[in-house]
Amino acid sequence: MNILDKIVIDKRKEVDLRKSLIPIHQLEASILFERKTNSLVQKLKASTSGIIAEHKRRSPSKSVINQSLNVQDVAIGYEEAAVCGMSVLTDGKYFGGSLDDLLLARASCNLPLLRKEFIIDTYQIIEAKAYGADVILLIGAILTREEIKQFSELAKSLSLDVLLEIHNEEELQKSIMPSLDMLGVNNRNLKTFEVSLETSKQLSQIIPNDFVKVSESGISSVEAIRALQAYGYKGFLIGENFMKTDNPGVSATEFINTLES
Ligand SMILES: O=C(O)c1ccccc1NCC(=O)[C@H](O)[C@H](O)COP(=O)(O)O
Q1: Which CATH number covers residue 30?
Q2: pTM higher than 0.95 for the full model?
Q3: Could you give the number of structural domains in the chain?
C-alpha cells in the first residue's frame, strides 16, 4: 500500500467525524463563505516568477521540516515577498497542519490561498471556502473521473480555482476537463519519495495549453525554475526549500529577487 492509500483511509474517517460535528449549513453560514475570492490562476498568468509558497511543518518524506514557526508570520512574510499565492497544508496526521492554519493565514494576508488537502468528499470543498481558501487541490491519483468532475464543478460554483495534480500520463488523460484551471505535475514519486524535475519536463508536452501548468515538489533553485519555464510552466509550488529556514518570507524574497534579476 502506498502512502496516498494510507492517507485516504485515514481521511475518510476524519471527514466522517468532521461532518458529524459541523453540519454543512453551519459552514455555509460562516462569514468567510460569502467573501469574494482572489484568483491564483490570474496571478500566475500575470507573473514573471510564479511562486506558490507553502506552509509545511512536516511530511511523510521528511518528517520534521520546521515546527517552530507560526503560520501568521509565515503568511505575512510570503506576502511581503510578493509570491503569487500561499499553499496551506491542512492535514494533521501526516503534515502537522490544520484548518486553523488556513483561517490564521486568511486573517494575516490577502494572497490567494490554496487549501492543500487530500480531498475525497464535497464536504471538504465547502470547508475550504468557509475557512478562507481561494483554491482547492484535486489529486488525480485518488479520485475517479466522475469525482473530479463533481468536485471541480462544485468548486467553480463557489468561485474557487481548481488545481488538478497528476503524477503520470494516465492520470492526466483521466482527468482533463474544462472545469479545471491549473494542471500541477508532482515531481515526487510517492512510492520512493524521490523527486525528479524530469517528470514535469516529460509531461509538459502532453498538457493542453488551455491550462496553466504548475510544477510541484523538489524545487530548490532558481536554475530549476528557469529550466521549467522553458517547458511552459507558469507556477512553481515550493514548500521545504522555504520552510526549512528560520524565516521563510525572507528566503522567498531572496529567491524571487534572484529569479527576477
Ligand atoms: O511532501 C511529501 O512528503 C508528500 C508525501 C505524500 C503526499 C504528498 C506530499 N507532499 C505534498 C506536496 O505536494 C508538497 O508539499 C508540495 O509539492 C511542496 O513540495 P516541496 O517543495 O518538496 O516541499
Answers
A1: 3.20.20.70
A2: yes
A3: 1
248 lines ligand 1 (CB under 6 A): no
CA 235/CA 43 separation, integer angstroms: 10
Q: Which domain holds residue 69?
A: 3-260
Q: How many other C-beta atoms can be found within 10 angstroms of the C-beta atom of residue 113?
A: 26
Burial class (CB in 10 A: 0-12, 13-18, 19+), 196: middle
Please name which of 188, 133, 173, 139 lies closest in space to residue 155, comparing C-alpha atoms.
133
**From the alpha carbon of 218, which atom of ligand 1 is closest?**
22
Instruction: Give the pairing type, strands 85-89 and 63-64.
Output: unpaired
Q: Which atom of ligand 1 is nearest to the CA of 65?
A: 23
Residues annotated as catalytic (active site), given as ranges: 54, 56, 116, 165, 186, 216-217
Please indicate whether residue 171, judged by its CB atom, sits closer than 6 Å to ligand 1. no
Element (H, E) at 112: none
Quote the percentage of the chain above a pLDDT of 70: 100
Give the C-alpha separation, 241 to 222, whole Å.
11
- Report whether residue 181 contacts ligand 1, using a CB cutoff of 6 Å: no
Which residues, given as ranges, of the chain have pLDDT below 70?
none
Q: What are the grid coordinates assigned to 187, written together?
A: 515531481
Interface pTM, i.e. ipTM? 0.98
| Cell matching residue 235 | 507556477
pLDDT of 1: 82
Between CA 42 and CA 47 the distance in angstroms is: 9
* The ligand 1 atom nearest the CA atom of 240: 23
| Ligand 1 binding pocket includes 238 (Cβ within 6 Å) | yes
pLDDT, position 156? 98
